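Hi L.,

As promised, 4-amino-4-deoxy-L-arabinose-phosphoundecaprenol flippase subunit ArnF:
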Amino acid sequence: MPPLFLILLSVILGSGAQIAFKIGVLHAAPLKFDIPGVIALLGSPYIIGGLMAFAASFLLWLKILATVPLSYAYPMVSLGYVFIFLYSWRYLGENLPALRVAGLVLIVTGIFFIARS
């Protein structure tokens, strides 16, 4: 598989994991960080799914690091900001402030130049 595809898949999985974690903690309210609370949290299907997506992202990232220069691959992780922003808007109902959108456009522009190098 092309390295860029693996990088994008890793970033998408990592971003999806963060959204799953957020949904998991929102459903766990009131959240308590004592032993019973953490055990209950770890039993959440959202948290379990997030951990699985995060583990898959991590394993893909190791594969990427073995095959692609770090100076090329690591800046692509910035796409996580874009995916989190879009997922948060779509699945969590968060706002799309114009200043954030402008910042994301700058991030995507920078990643475009890195990908072309």
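The chain has one domain: 3-116.

Thanks again for sending the construct details.

K.
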